[in-house]
Amino acid sequence: MNAKSKCLVGDKAGIQEFIDRFDVFLFDCDGVLWSGDQLFEGTVETLEMLRGKGKQTVFVTNNSTKSRADYKKQLESMGIPASVDEIFGSAYSASVYISRILSLPPKQSTVFVIGESGVEAELDSESVPHIGGTDPFYNRAITPQDYTTIASGTTLDPSVGVVLVGLDHDINYLKLSYAYAYLKRGAVFLITNADPTLPSAGSLFPGAGSISAPLIAMMGGEGGEKVTSMGKPSQAMMDAIEGKFRFDRSKACMVGDRLDTDIKFGIEGRLGGTLCVLSGVTRGESDWEGADVVPTAWVNELGDLRG
Q1: In what order do the strands lie in the sheet with 160-165?
Q2: Which residue, 40, 87, 51, is CA-closest to 68?
């Protein structure tokens, strides 16, 4: 029998009891705190209320287009005080994994990036060499000569040992061609996250999972088996977060708008609870009716926690 999720909307006693159960709240950002450039009503006041009660807040995002420093600026621009140490993004998670966990041969330690400046900044913070990304050489249409040089390997960098794919608003055929060539040569296949969609401006757009999907398909059955995701719901990310913040999982709550990433992340991570907000991808109880992934509780928007 599937567990039942509790509605906290308008339930002041239920909200207080729920909040009192936890010392730490892990927040997804897009679809929870804001959508696009629109901050949801009550977000700032809710975070202030939780912090006033002595709760630790950690912002956990799968969006790899921004570095932790970028997210700090975005949070503060919306009136949310935050430090870089309170932010844990998938780009940072991937960079730490590459620099501290992967045992790459010294001559194959370069990362080929499909992604944006956020990934590059976090790789730089861990002193990981990289190519691709925002380099103008790759932001163009493929040419007949490119087919020849990629196929022959003359324009491939022999030091590439990892292909890291994140959200890239300038994705193109040339980047995919280079990435596939490196993967065929044995490069480790990492993705910042597998989210197929990204909520913005009250709608859904292609997410990082849509960027890596062609490469996974090109790799056939091996693609899905050999790719490692460094974002939610990957427990590699949860282990890294716990290792950094040193919290008791039973006293932590994951707050998010996606069942398949945020809520699953909290459940598989054995956190004390999960809270689904219906301001992003998930729209109602029917989304988890009969499902294996069911949040502990739900609200329409984060501001509902104010009672």
Answers
A1: 130-132, 110-114, 160-165, 188-191, 228-229
A2: 87
What per-residue confidence (pLDDT) applies to 1?
43
What share of residues in the chain are helix, strand, coil (percent, to 5)?
40, 20, 40
As a whole number of angstroms, the distance between CA 283 and CA 278 comes to: 5
Find the radius of gyration of the CA atoms of the chain: 20
pLDDT computed for residue 101 by the predictor: 85
Angle at 293 between CA 47 and CA 6, to 5 degrees: 55
Is the distance from CB of 92 to CB of 236 less than 8 angstroms? no
Using alpha carbons, select from 55, 59, 123, 116 the residue that is nearest to residue 86: 59
**What positions carry a catalytic annotation?**
23
pTM: 0.82
C-beta of residue 237 within 8 angstroms of C-beta of residue 231: yes
Quick one: pLDDT at residue 208? 95
- Take residue 129 and report the two structure tokens written for it: 């060499």
Eight-state DSSP code of residue 263: I
